[in-house]
Automatic annotation (TrEMBL):
GO MF entries: ATP binding; ATP hydrolysis activity; transmembrane transporter activity
Protein name, entry field: ABC transporter ATP-binding protein
Kinase among keywords: no
Membrane-spanning ranges: none
SUPFAM superfamilies xref list: P-loop containing nucleoside triphosphate hydrolases
InterPro entries named among the record's database cross-references: AAA+_ATPase (IPR003593), ABC_transporter-like_ATP-bd (IPR003439), ABC_transporter-like_CS (IPR017871), ABC_transpr_LolD-like (IPR015854), MacB-like_ATP-bd (IPR017911), P-loop_NTPase (IPR027417)
Entry keywords, A to Z: ATP-binding, Nucleotide-binding, Transport
Ranges of residues in domain ABC transporter: 12-232
GO cellular component: plasma membrane
Length: 232
């Protein structure tokens, strides 16, 4: 039980993560906490390990060392079947390079997580349409990813990540392909949605204006979080 004088228990906590891709040490002892409902920005130079950290926290990549704890569940040792179930119910992910399904239209891409969760086709399409509207891409429902601009694909990816009402959204450079006005629109929609539903957001960004939407910012350098006071 936490009291007022204690820090709230984190919703998601990574401790001492190490991860190598071949001979590249992408993470070297990274630790980070995300509290319920918190919007946390992760910044750092290209190659500092941000995407790798996000993939470990979201249970997509298993760290070589360290632990990832979500609520009272340790993700890094969880069997794949339970991990993918938990990812489907509790997490929404916006990948840095889109990863929409190329054969499906925008509407079907966003509806897919709902269909997997057992919604009817009709209900899934209605809700998917509402999310596309929220992110300003209504009218493009029938486009396939190959026919969309980078910015449209990012908005569709955000809609897909949020459509199931996850507890945590992981967004890797969600405004990277948008101009600053469109970036602001997407960020306000994301922040508004997160605040309204109490969703925690881990947001990777290079952009200080985007990071300013977060409650807190941590910076990665060479695969580890820069201690407070050393950043800048
Ligand atoms: N699948 C992979 N295979 C080999 N090396 C990889 C792989 N993924 C990442 N790396 C390497 O690990 C390091 C960290 O990569 P990561 O993608 O986590 O960085 P990042 O901070 O997200 O960078 P960016 O800002 O450019 O997206 C880099 O040196 C990268 O080249
Ligand atoms: Mg990256």
């Amino acid at each position: 039980m936490s009291t007022n004088s204690e820090k709230p228990t984190p919703l998601l906590a990574a401790r001492g993560l190490a991860k190598s891709h071949g001979r590249t040490r992408a993470l070297r002892g990274a630790s980070v906490e995300l509290r319920a409902g918190e919007i946390l920005a992760v910044t750092g130079a290209s190659g500092s390990g941000k995407s790798t950290l996000l993939h470990c926290l979201a249970g997509i990549v298993r760290p070589d060392e360290g632990s990832v704890v979500y609520g009272d569940t340790r993700l890094d040792g969880l069997p794949e079947k339970r991990l993918s179930e938990l990812r489907r119910t509790d997490f929404g992910v916006v990948f840095q390079f889109g990863q929409l399904i190329p054969e499906l239209t925008a509407l079907d891409n966003v509806a897919l997580p709902l269909l997997l969760a057992g919604a009817s086709r009709r209900d899934a399409h209605v809700r998917a349409g509402q999310w596309l509207e929220r992110f300003g891409v209504l009218g493009q429902e029938e486009l396939r990813p190959g026919e969309m601009s980078g910015g449209q694909a990012q908005r569709v990816s955000l809609a897909r990540a949020l459509v199931t009402g996850p507890k945590v959204v992981f967004a890797d450079e969600p405004t990277g392909a948008l101009d600053s006005l469109a970036g602001e629109q997407v960020m306000s929609a994301l922040v508004h949605t997160a605040r309204e539903s109490g969703t925690a957001v881990l947001l990777i960004t290079h952009d200080a204006q985007v990071a300013a939407y977060a409650d807190r910012e941590v910076q990665l350098r060479d695969g580890a979080v820069v201690p407070l006071g050393v950043a800048a």
